[in-house]
Amino acid sequence: MGACQSFREMCDRTKNTNIRLSLPAVCVIWQTAMIILFGIFIRYNEESDIRWAEHKKLKNITSDIENDFYFRYPSFQDVHVMIFVGFGFLMTFLKRYSFGGVGFSFLLASFGLQWALLMQGWFHHLVDGKILIGVENLINADFCVAGCLIAYGALLGKVSPVQLMVLTLFGVTLFAVEEYIILNLIHARDAGGSMVIHTFGAYYGLSISWMLYRPNLEQSSSLQRSVYHSDVFAMIGTLYLWMFWPSFNSAIADHGDGQHRAAINTYLCLAATVLTTFAISSLFQKHGKLDMVHIQNSTLAGGVAVGTAAEFMLMPYGALIVGFCCGVVSTLGYIYLTPFLEKYLKIQDTCGIHNLHAMPGVIGGIVGAISAAAASESVYGHEGLVNMFKLVPAVQGGHQAGGLCVALCFGIGGGIIVGAILRLPIWGDPADDNCFDDEAYWEVPEEEESSLQILQYNNHFRNKDVVESNFTVEQDGRTRS
Amino acid sequence: MGACQSFREMCDRTKNTNIRLSLPAVCVIWQTAMIILFGIFIRYNEESDIRWAEHKKLKNITSDIENDFYFRYPSFQDVHVMIFVGFGFLMTFLKRYSFGGVGFSFLLASFGLQWALLMQGWFHHLVDGKILIGVENLINADFCVAGCLIAYGALLGKVSPVQLMVLTLFGVTLFAVEEYIILNLIHARDAGGSMVIHTFGAYYGLSISWMLYRPNLEQSSSLQRSVYHSDVFAMIGTLYLWMFWPSFNSAIADHGDGQHRAAINTYLCLAATVLTTFAISSLFQKHGKLDMVHIQNSTLAGGVAVGTAAEFMLMPYGALIVGFCCGVVSTLGYIYLTPFLEKYLKIQDTCGIHNLHAMPGVIGGIVGAISAAAASESVYGHEGLVNMFKLVPAVQGGHQAGGLCVALCFGIGGGIIVGAILRLPIWGDPADDNCFDDEAYWEVPEEEESSLQILQYNNHFRNKDVVESNFTVEQDGRTRS
Amino acid sequence: MGACQSFREMCDRTKNTNIRLSLPAVCVIWQTAMIILFGIFIRYNEESDIRWAEHKKLKNITSDIENDFYFRYPSFQDVHVMIFVGFGFLMTFLKRYSFGGVGFSFLLASFGLQWALLMQGWFHHLVDGKILIGVENLINADFCVAGCLIAYGALLGKVSPVQLMVLTLFGVTLFAVEEYIILNLIHARDAGGSMVIHTFGAYYGLSISWMLYRPNLEQSSSLQRSVYHSDVFAMIGTLYLWMFWPSFNSAIADHGDGQHRAAINTYLCLAATVLTTFAISSLFQKHGKLDMVHIQNSTLAGGVAVGTAAEFMLMPYGALIVGFCCGVVSTLGYIYLTPFLEKYLKIQDTCGIHNLHAMPGVIGGIVGAISAAAASESVYGHEGLVNMFKLVPAVQGGHQAGGLCVALCFGIGGGIIVGAILRLPIWGDPADDNCFDDEAYWEVPEEEESSLQILQYNNHFRNKDVVESNFTVEQDGRTRS
Questions:
Q1: Which of A209, A221, B136, C12 has its CA 20 to 30 A from that of C133?
Q2: Which residues of A are less than 8 Å from B64 in CB distance?
Q3: Do the chains contact at B275 and C99, CB–CB below 8 Å?
Q4: What's the CA gap between C161 and C467, in Å, rounded?
Q5: 3-class DSSP state of B42
Q6: Closest by CA position to A149, among listed A70, A25, A248
Q7: B153 Cβ contact list (under 8 Å, min separation 6)
Q8: Nearest CB to B229: which of A66, A229, A257?
């Protein structure tokens, strides 16, 4: 008993989770930097500026409804819900890390979207030294943040909020560069971000997790589980991601048929994924019982995998086929691959992002390359082919594949470098036996009265004060019934 | 004790809930069939096809914003949320069937929407042997699924997921036929589906429940209850249904004033329902205490009942009157009718869909018939009257009433047939003492540590190992406080 | 023990929470009054009336998409979610008042929006004795309700639903008058309602709370706390308010750039608030642990404070500065001001609306006044300046400040009067030791089986019936594991 306690104290000494100075410092300084950089660089674009009225006249636009706001704002709000409620609640599944799951996502995303507006603006929207922003920039900033949230999924419960801020700073920076290379230099198309967002984000997170490998993580294994209600909370995240994924994949697609088609393809693909996920989950468990982990995660794999090709003429049955395969691959990944990765490759992946984002993201890149290479004038029409792809289909297919490689390299390379930085002993990360526990960073409310009172009562009883404890018990009975 | 156990074992032998082969088989085979049928039949329509650019020129459409996507996509996403989060979470109210409530809805709906696209397509959208789909088809598919989810409400906790798949297969088929008869042959109007969706779906489910009557269901009555937090989860479902119902009733109404008016009428009607639901719930309970079951369900009855007439010139006060009545009728139904149905008609209705969908649906059909029959040129204008109704108002009223009868017949008749099929002992449904329990089909996480530890500690103590148990208790105190 | 019980009984006698007659009476009579008044006054406007087709021709409108419905309906639905899920779930944080938090908000809002349509209609939209309504009226009605829900936040757990209905009746009335004075007589602008909604609503609620001061409220202090899962439920409310606030502030802004800019400013402002809230929360707590109360509430302060100026040319960095300050001020308010208000000013503010709405609302009014006064033709252009402000900038700034004063006066004055009315002993409010407890007004489901069974088992054991209790324990072990 004494030895145990002294060991714990030693751990507490070497691993100090007190972030009372580091977190406020990072938040305040970085936010101040954002204000300064926004002051220098960021302005409204012609559609959100008060001079829109003049702009309309110049461009002979007859109605305010032509403002891009009305094309994209509903999709933007859906994406916004995916980022904060979708990702946030998907990460509440652990029994004692729900605060950290939803709370740190909230922090990370709020910082990340500001930094993304700047980084993406410098690469894509710099006009006369100013970044002119509108609703499409907000969507892209949310997309960029999604990459970092995916990475957080691998690290959930094992890192401090300060580490997450650092992860986001570098993650957004890397994202903006790889996005620029993939979309603007290689001319790959990736409206739903299978490569740019999911492949990059997942391998970025997995590489960091590999660098931060914790050999004694089983010390907190009792907390790396869900309870009944935390699983229901996580389903809120799952369903919002699932329902709004058509908006995610169509949000920045071309006006008109582009957005329309991307939404239909994603809707269908995700529906097929649900059926195969249920099938595999039941088939590979003893007694055929379904596993909530699969339902919460693998049902979403189709949305990832159809990201690149959603705006293409994938055809409804093509979308279903992609979804069918992803449900199978992703669920099998949870059953066989996640334990393998942890045991042999030393990658601890709390949320199983390898199955939800990495593999489906790569599949999405490949599907995109194949469907681009297979594009024909009979399906697309001449005009359609020119508008959709800047290159000849076969060449476009190659460039799509090239884009996938870039995303992989940036994810793995960037993750290793950032992981090395995060290993420095200054970030306030928890000890191995303190992982997956909100106590480390949050004021956690006391337990439900009932359990506590029973405990108190029991201790009472143990001391043989049977008579005095009478009052407690009866009170208890009264307030409960 | 021994007798009890052997009885349980016998039950387990006769009722095998192991769906390890049947569920995967159904999911994989049916999904494969969907892929093949989609490959043969389903293509993009002119607004979601890449040839939209050519189509625009042909039709002299000046802007992409005229694409139906921008008229209907925000409503579609709201409807989508209603189907998956609304219905799904409304069914999480049981203490130990939240996984089944939200999970099986997810499965059922994901299959149903694919099958609905085909069935509705064959009846409504077949052009040269192809079904051309756009956002309106997605909305209609979601509507069709709503009918099956309503039916699930009566059966919640008492059927296996395989049975739900069968229920959906037949439910969608029947739905498409009755919808075709009501809308295309009888020329009734039903934008919000009071008849087509709610009346049909509710009587379909109730008839199935009647066929599957379980005389010994009280054996699992301890589980047919809510706990505090499961009631709060269910309120998520309630509120999303309530808030987005204006989108449901306006989603496929006519562009412009039609959608606008349907949304206003539904908004008002639902507000009135809330007040009378609270009134009746308090008035008929002892001590005036409100019952969560009423608040979760009866507050929604107005949305059902205003479905048919929402796009008509019902007038704002008309919408309020409909809402007023539905709150009263539906809440009284929960108090008096549900027990009556179970005791005398042998209909076990877990969620009370008779009060939430069946009665309000019939009221909605009647309100629709009356307001169509009462339509006058002074209110509608000549042009309006012609656009809204293909027939003279009095005749239209009769046809609306006819539509209601068709929905009733299909619901009851179809339910009896499908119920007979579901009685076959091959579907893996639970035994009477195993109902309302997620253990049957799900890997359920262990209980909260606190309770378990107390239990362990107690057992410890019972064995008089007072001294050895010291350690456990102290640890407990530490980790808890 | 006997004395205690008789004291409780006395309390129960003086404070009767039985609302079996009063609540139904209020609901039914007021709803009936609404129907009559709607019958007399409320009709569809030209965009929701069936004569829209004629109206289009008259006004040379070429497309249905020009209907205001398509400009505002997505924002309306977001606002609707904020009112019912946002405010409702934010108030579920108490361990035993989640039903009351979400349920009474639902009731209050459903009545309030009807009464608001009438009150605001009489002041703003009366044409030939009729109020013509469209989607903008629905948004304004929801806004008006928001004021009353804010006031409820100060009173949460301490008032009866009948009192809330009275609060709403007067609150909406006062709101409509102050709104008319501020917007139409003083010509201040306030698209996001920093003054009209938040300042008014918060001081209205705080004044009522001051009038209803309960000196012995610490008797129910054990219930004025959260538990783990109730904090997660509250995060649902927080996130929906946070995510959809851009829609709130842009919902009734000018078409085109006005809505676009308001959304961008709010998005940025809220992101900055999150960072400073986390910073201050960690900095001022012992061990740097974050407090869920701050994360749930202070992260929203930026949305309040940017309400007035969101549609102005505040500039992106301006929005960030406002957010930065509000996160700091609001979080410090929770740490220092709320205890001060309770101790010295006798204002008991359950949700801390002084920190979330009152102070940020006043800041918002001031920011609005300054940015209006500082408006220049170089930024706005001549046309923009004329469209945005009816007056010269400097004068406009003064009028904005005047608007703020009107909101404050109406809030405090109205709150004192309504508070006096609510002190009458006829409204069924709970006794001091009965506050924050759903038992008073709701049928609360029994506790989780586990705790109860343990309790029963313990009582058993206490009676030394060790042998007989064997059965219970083993059963227990079986059903649990």
A1: B136
A2: 71, 255-256
A3: no
A4: 49
A5: strand
A6: A248
A7: B87, B90, B91, B205, B349, B350, B351, B352, B353, B356, B357
A8: A229
C240 touches C184 (CB < 8 A): no
Report the C-alpha gap between A84 and A103 in whole angstroms: 9
Chains in contact with chain B (at least 3 beta-carbon pairs closer than 8 A): A, C
Nearest residue of A to residue C388, measured between CA atoms: A50
Identity of the residue in C247, C260, C452 whose CB atom sits nearest the CB atom of A48: C260
Residue A456 near residue A476, CB atoms below 8 Å: no
Cross-sheet strand order for the sheet of A126-127: A42-44, A130-133, A126-127
Candidates C12, C16, C40, C48: best to mutate against B (most CBs of B within 10 A) is: C48
Contact B48, A266 (CB under 8 A): no
DSSP string, C131-160: EEE-HHHHHHHHHHHHHHHHHHHHHTTTS-
Neighbours of B174 (CB within 10 A): 23
3-state DSSP assignment of residue C406: helix
- The values of phi and psi at residue A443, to 5°, are -75, 105
- Interface contact flag, A289 B110, Cβ < 8 Å: no
CA distance A212 to A422: 8
Chains in contact with chain A (at least 3 beta-carbon pairs closer than 8 A): B, C
Q: Which CATH superfamily is domain A73-440 in?
A: Ammonium transporter AmtB like domains (1.10.3430.10)
CATH number of B41-440: 1.10.3430.10
- B380 to chain C: which residues are within 8 Å by CB? 50
Tell me the ipTM for this assembly: 0.90
Nearest to B239 among C52, C54, C84 (CB): C84
Q: Is B44 helix (H, G, I), strand (E, B) or coil?
A: strand
Residue of B287, B315, B324 with shortest CB distance to C20: B287
Q: Are C266 and C317 in contact (CB under 8 A)?
A: no
Q: Which CATH architecture has domain C21-440?
A: Orthogonal Bundle (1.10)
Question: d(Cα B397, Cα B383) in Å, to the nearest integer?
Answer: 18
Please answer whether residues B196 and B405 qualify as being in contact, where contact means their C-beta atoms are separated by less than 8 angstroms: no
Q: Collapsing DSSP states into helix, strand and coil, what is residue A144?
A: helix
**B112 to chain C, closest Cα gap in Å:** 27
Per-residue pLDDT of chain C in tens (481 residues, 90 and over written 9): 445 455 545 544 567 888 889 999 999 999 999 999 999 999 999 999 999 988 899 999 989 999 999 999 999 999 999 999 999 999 999 999 999 999 999 999 999 999 999 999 999 888 899 999 999 999 999 999 999 999 999 999 999 999 999 999 999 999 999 999 999 999 999 999 999 999 999 999 999 999 999 999 988 888 999 999 999 999 999 999 999 999 999 999 999 999 999 999 999 999 999 999 999 999 998 889 999 999 999 999 999 999 999 999 999 999 999 999 999 999 999 999 999 999 999 999 999 999 999 999 999 999 999 999 999 989 998 888 888 887 788 899 999 999 999 999 999 999 999 999 999 988 989 999 899 999 999 999 976 544 444 444 444 444 443 333 333 333 333 333 2
Q: Which residue has the tokens 């329309």?
A: A260
Inspect the interface and report whether the beta carbons of C387 and A77 lie closer than 8 Å.
Answer: no
Q: Do A50 and C227 touch (CB under 8 A)?
A: no
Task: With beta carbons under 8 A apart, name residues in chain C contacting A51.
Answer: 257, 381, 384
Instruction: Please indicate whether, in this complex, the C-beta atoms of A260 and B444 are within 8 angstroms of each other.
Output: no
A238's CB contacts (< 8 A; 6+ apart) are: A86, A90, A295, A296, A297, A299, A300
End-to-end CA distance of chain A: 39
**SS3 state of residue B95:** coil
Q: What are the boundaries of each domain within chain B? A: 41-440, 455-480
End-to-end CA distance of chain C: 39
Cβ atoms of C324 and A35 closer than 8 Å: yes
